[in-house]
């Protein structure tokens, strides 16, 4: 029996086949796989694999004891601080020397711990500080020359005063649900981050007007999210002038937008997410669009004739009209052709819509 087990062991396979098998293993499992034996550790190539440092997931690792032998009476919070310092020390010592994707999301980092992180962030390409107590001083003391992706969602202590000047190479920026974000911050982003491709402003207070005049600076911006904001039509029009190549626009729960000109200024728009909108004028303007491929109109005031016109668009590939009461009422009428249109274009309709009807 022992001979049969040894003969069927994974380690008996040729090295090339083992490398191929391990290429399908997820990053979170590769460190555990490296603990099996020396041969597996060499094959996994742990130094190359450790390009991502996620403090929150490391704190939840089951192969590291969650109880300290030296502090048996410690509280859960104090033990968490000890574990955070343990992993940050590994980051400082070079265990993750190739890590260019750093995430400290949801971690309660104190000021002393943040100071220890400063040198490690200088090589970062991706940095996630969402749901942390980070402040503007972090960017004053850190050189982020290579940073391309930055997430600062739900950071209540950020003032967003001088950040755009520190991260000029950004391609993706998320500042959702940060009440300190203002139109001045957006204008500074337009001026400084010329390579920005993704901009998430969801839940920010954009009630003040965004006024900006000049050339089209964000020529590479393809996705913009201003959902759950109080952005006005004039501010959105201003952003349209600065972002001529915008393909994806999210306007969910934007109560101040009702005119058909909202989407008319975005000439290359392909995806529109405009849920909980009570005006159907915006969707009516899409009926003549030659570029739109995806429309999310859930919980909106879209009407049956507009739905039929959208489904008739040859380039449209996805439509969601679930929980739209006006469409539901019209579809129940005997002479209504909405249900027939939905069935004829079933491949274009979302699963939520099919379940709703």
Q: Order of strands across the biggest sheet? A: 1-2-3-4-5-6-7-8-9-10-11
Helix run count: 17
**How would you sum up the global shape?**
globular
Q: Give the number of DSSP strands.
A: 11
Secondary-structure element pattern, one letter each: HHHHHEHHEHEHEEHEEHEHEHEHEHHH
Strand content: 5-15%
Radius of gyration over C-alpha positions, nearest whole angstrom: 26 Å
> Which structural category do the helix and sheet elements fall into?
alpha/beta
Q: Taking all residues together, what is the mean pLDDT?
A: 80
- What is the terminal separation in angstroms? 60 Å
Architecture overview:
It contains 17 helices and 11 strands. With 357 residues, it is an alpha/beta fold. The model has no long low-confidence stretch (mean pLDDT 80). Helix 8 links the parallel strand 2 (101-103) and strand 3 (126-128). It has an 11-stranded parallel β-sheet. Helices cover 36% and strands 9% of the residues. It has helices at residues 2-7, 15-22, 27-34, 38-44, 46-49, 55-59, 76-93, 111-121, 137-140, 183-192, 233-242, 261-264, 281-286, 304-311, 325-331, 338-344, 351-356; strands at 52-54, 101-103, 126-128, 149-151, 172-174, 198-200, 223-225, 248-250, 271-273, 294-296, 318-320. The relative contact order is 0.05.
């Amino acid at each position: 029996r022992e001979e049969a087990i040894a003969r069927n062991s994974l380690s008996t396979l040729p090295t090339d086949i083992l490398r191929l098998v391990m290429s399908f293993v997820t990053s979170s499992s590769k460190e555990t796989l490296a603990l099996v034996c020396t041969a597996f550790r060499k094959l996994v190539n742990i130094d190359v694999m450790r390009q991502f440092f996620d403090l929150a997931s490391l704190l939840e690792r089951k192969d590291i004891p969650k109880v300290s032998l030296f502090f048996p009476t410690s509280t859960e919070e104090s033990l968490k601080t000890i574990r955070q310092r343990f992993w940050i020390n590994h980051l400082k010592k070079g265990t993750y020397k190739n890590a260019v994707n750093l995430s400290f999301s949801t971690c309660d980092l104190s000021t002393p711990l943040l100071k220890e992180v400063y040198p490690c962030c200088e090589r970062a390409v991706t940095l996630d500080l969402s749901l942390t107590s980070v402040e503007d001083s972090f960017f004053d003391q850190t050189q982020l020359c290579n940073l391309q992706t930055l997430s600062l969602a739900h950071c209540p202590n950020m003032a967003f005063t001088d950040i755009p000047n520190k991260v000029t190479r950004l391609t993706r920026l998320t500042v959702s649900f940060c009440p300190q974000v203002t139109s001045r911050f957006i204008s500074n982003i337009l001026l400084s981050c010329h390579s920005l491709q993704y901009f998430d402003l969801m839940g920010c207070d954009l009630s003040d007007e965004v006024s900006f005049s000049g050339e089209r600076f964000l020529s590479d911006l393809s996705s913009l999210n201003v959902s759950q904001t109080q952005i006005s039509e004039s501010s959105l029009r201003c952003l349209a002038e600065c972002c001529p190549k915008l393909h994806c626009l999210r306007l969910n729960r934007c109560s101040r937008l009702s005119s058909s000109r909202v989407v008319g200024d975005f000439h290359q728009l392909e995806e529109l997410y405009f849920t909980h909108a009570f005006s159907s004028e915006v969707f009516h303007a899409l009926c003549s669009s030659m570029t739109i491929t995806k429309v999310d109109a859930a919980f909106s005031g879209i009407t049956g004739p507009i739905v039929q016109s959208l489904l008739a668009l040859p380039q449209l590939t996805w439509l969601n009209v679930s929980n739209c009461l006006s469409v539901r009422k019209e579809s129940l009428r005997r002479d209504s052709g909405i249900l027939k249109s939905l069935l004829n274009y079933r491949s274009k309709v979302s699963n939520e819509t099919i379940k709703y009807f």
